[in-house]
Design brief:
about 140 residues, ATP binding, metal-binding, 4 helices, mainly alpha, 2 domains, single chain, lipid biosynthesis, Helix Hairpins, nucleotide-binding
């Protein structure tokens, strides 16, 4: 094997490592600066704990994880759009407002969908626990 190929492999690994490093910096930035991301993460922790307690099936976990991942990812894209607009203009501009509103709306729609998914998955399980434990006590 030539030294050119060995050097290329190391260079590719270094580039890959930097790419992951930049991505983690982005995640850290959004977590530390965005109140909504902190709220989403708090809800995520509760949902994951509840999922473990209720022993979700693999397919239920799949839906829950896609719902969580979608909300978190869209929140990050929303933040990127907001920061880019803030970089371009500090002045009020109707198009800048609209772009920010649309990005926030995308997060809202997916978050509502995630809540619906959660209700479909957790609702019957929690209802069953409530009916079998709470109503029998009375």
């Amino acid at each position: 094997m030539s030294t050119d190929l060995k050097g290329k492999g190391n260079k590719d690994r270094s580039r890959l490592f930097r790419s992951f490093s930049y991505a983690f910096q982005g995640v850290k930035y959004v977590i530390t600066t965005e109140k909504n991301m902190k709220i989403h993460l708090f809800v995520t922790v509760i949902v994951v704990i509840l999922g473990m307690v209720l022993s979700l099936s693999p397919i239920e976990w799949l839906f829950i994880l896609f719902a969580i991942g979608g909300v978190l990812s869209l929140e990050m894209i929303n933040t990127a759009i907001e920061r880019t607009i803030d970089l371009v203009t500090k002045d009020y501009h109707l198009l800048a407002k609209r772009a920010k509103d649309v990005a926030a709306g995308a997060v809202l729609i997916y978050a509502i969908l995630a809540v619906i998914v959660g209700m479909i998955i957790f609702g019957p399980k929690l209802y069953h626990i409530f009916v079998t434990n709470v109503i029998k006590i009375n």
